[in-house]
Write a structure and sequence with these properties.
Elements: E1 7-8, E2 18-23, H1 29-38, E3 67-73, E4 79-88, E5 99-107, H2 116-130, E6 135-141, H3 145-153, E7 157-168, E8 171-181
Parallel strand pairs: 1-5, 5-6
Antiparallel strand pairs: 2-3, 3-4, 4-5, 6-8, 7-8
């Protein structure tokens, strides 16, 4: 899974049925892999489109405990994995252990517009605070206006910009660094 820039969002409408946001478990791997593959787009991804054989979702750098997953009812009334946020320490340095970084956020196409990304963000804020963090950061591609609008509505501000950092679909795309305080 890409380390950063996996922010797959659309305009958020009111929540209907988000059943739970919970830590991921090993048995979520297949659903997370399918979600990542089905939502891949150059709107948020800087890595090539995944091709079989697919790499595992969980490995030494992508542990289940780093992921929060949201469950929601699909059109058939089944409760399914609808999205995830990956929340990690940005480095292994003790001097920035007070920071958590979102390195991936995705919502299934069938679940968009139901407040799932917002629920995942708020759960990430709570989890980071309970772990002693007082700051959260993320990176988002400059042309991903829906994700940027959501992040801004949740208190993130642009703290840095790398102009033309990526070349995607025949054009240069900015890398935008955003952050926010986790103080209540």
């Amino acid at each position: 899974m890409p380390e950063n820039h996996t922010h797959r969002l659309h305009v958020v409408r009111p929540v209907r049925t988000v059943h739970a946001v919970r830590p991921a478990v090993l048995s979520d791997e297949a659903a997370l892999g399918e979600l990542d593959r089905s939502t891949w787009s150059t709107l948020h991804a800087v890595t090539p489109r995944p091709q079989p054989p697919y790499a595992p979702v969980f490995d030494d750098l992508h542990r289940p405990e780093d992921f929060l997953v949201a469950e929601a009812e699909n059109a058939a009334g089944e409760v399914r994995l609808a999205g995830y946020a990956r929340l990690v320490l940005p480095t292994s340095l003790a001097c920035n252990a007070h920071v958590r970084q979102i390195q991936g956020l995705a919502v299934a196409d069938w679940a968009r517009g139901r407040g799932i990304a917002r629920a995942l963000l708020r759960a990430a804020f709570a989890a980071a605070r309970s772990d002693g963090a007082n700051r959260m950061t993320l990176r988002v591609l400059g042309h991903n206006a829906p994700a940027r609008a959501l992040y801004e509505s949740e208190g993130f501000v642009v703290e840095g910009l790398l102009p033309g950092e990526f070349f995607l679909d025949g054009r240069y795309v900015d890398d935008v660094m955003m952050g926010r305080s986790l103080a209540p």
